[in-house]
Structures are given as structure tokens and as C-alpha cells.
Amino acid sequence: MSIHKHGYTYDYPRPAVTTDIVVLAITEGKLGTLLIRRGEDPYREAWALPGGFLKEGETIEACAARELVEETGVSHTPLHQFGIYSAAGRDPRGWVVSVGYLACVHRHAIHPKAGSDAAAIGWHSVDAIPDLAFDHATILADSLAALRSRIHTEPLLPRMISEPFTLAALQDAMEVVVGAPVDKRNFRREMLESGWIVETDQFTAGRHRPARLYARVQA
């Protein structure tokens, strides 16, 4: 350790720090993620997760939110940390540690726009992901595991459908996320007791029996 006029410095190498953000939504009845096509080296023209480097004095949470806006135009979206990636050689630019964040959104509530360093941006089904830059395939897989493990304990699911919604629509979304049917009675009880949704005074219209419409509880 050395002491300089501006304070302490430590004689250890320091990694660069980045954030990688997985944006998930239900697209055409399937779970999809938002990818950018890189416009710069390394991995020029390869698809990748949105993200970028931490600035001096910036918190990691602020970095994730800023990079998401800069690279996709998506803002005001809750972000959930799910992993840290520090394997040697994961980034050809040097020693880089990345923090993974998850954002669950409604597909048509956001309007993605590629940033200046991206060649393109687009939604991709998680079942048909192209080859990804860096270790982003691992990060994406971890985010899906995190989503499926947290979907019953955090208010992620209601953010993935438009408001107002029926319990049937919410169940459809759950089945897309988990990739399997869920029990109707247990699911409805879980959602009604979760504190994440609230009844509205609206009902569906049409030939069938009207169904109650619900909205997200605002945090």
C-alpha cells in the first residue's frame, strides 16, 4: 500500500468493471430477449447483450441503468442483479469483471433503439439465440434460471403483460416463462395473495362471461 497526497492507493492490479443487462419479454407467445449487434471490435457484427463499462464514481446500479438507456433506449425499468462474471479470458480487451442484471418488460411498452456503438437491435426467442459475443450465452442462461426461480417471490410476471389484465392472461404469461402448464386454482390463489396485483372496477366485454381485470401494484 502506498500513501499519496490524494489518499491511499494499493499495489494490486485492478479489473475493469462492466454491466450486462438481460431484457426479457413475451414476444409472439414465446419468451424473448433483446440483443444488440455490435458495431465495434471486439466481436464486431456479433450479437450481444446490452451493457458497458462502469465510470469512475458511478455505482454499478447506475451503470446498468445508464447503459441500458444508451444502448437500447429502454428506461425506467426495474433491474435485478443475478450474477457476477470474472473468469480469466472472458473478455479479449483484458481483465474485465461483469455484473449481470435482469429486466422484465412488456414487449409493446418499450420502443428499443440501437445506440451509437450498435449496428442493430432486435428481439430473439430464447429458444433460437444466435452465437453471442463474450460469455453472454452463459449470462443469458443464468438470467433465465434466475427468472424462473424468482418468478414466485418477486413481482416480475405482472410487468410482462399489458394492463389491465385478466388472471387468465397472467397465467398464460407464467406458462410461457416456466415452459409448462400451471395449476389454475393454485396459480390464482398465489397471485391474489401476492400483493403484486390489485382488482380494478373493469371487466372484459364480449359473448363470454365477463372476467375481472387487474392492474399491477405500483411500487
- Return the CATH architecture of the largest domain: Alpha-Beta Complex
Shape: elongated
CATH class of the largest domain: Alpha Beta
Measured between the Cα atoms of the first and last residue, the distance is 45 Å
Write down the domain tally.
Answer: 2
Q: How many helix segments?
A: 4
By CATH, the topology of the largest domain is Nucleoside Triphosphate Pyrophosphohydrolase
Mean pLDDT: 93
CATH superfamily of the largest domain: Nucleoside Triphosphate Pyrophosphohydrolase
Percent helix among the residues?
Answer: 10-25%
- Structural class of the secondary elements? alpha+beta
Succession of helices and strands: EEEEEEHEEEHHHEE
Parts with pLDDT < 50 across at least 5 consecutive residues: none
Largest sheet: 7 strands, mixed
**Which band does the percent of strand residues land in?**
25-35%
Description:
The chain is α+β, with helices and mostly antiparallel strands. It has 2 domains: 16-151, Alpha-Beta Complex (Nucleoside Triphosphate Pyrophosphohydrolase); 162-216, Winged helix-like DNA-binding domain superfamily/Winged helix DNA-binding domain (Arc Repressor Mutant, subunit A). The protein is built from 4 helices and 11 strands, in the order ββββββαβββαααββ. Strands 3, 4, 5, 6, 7, 8 and 9 form a 7-stranded mixed β-sheet that branches. A two-stranded antiparallel sheet has the order 1-2. A two-stranded antiparallel ribbon has the order 10-11. The longest helix has 15 residues, at 136-150.
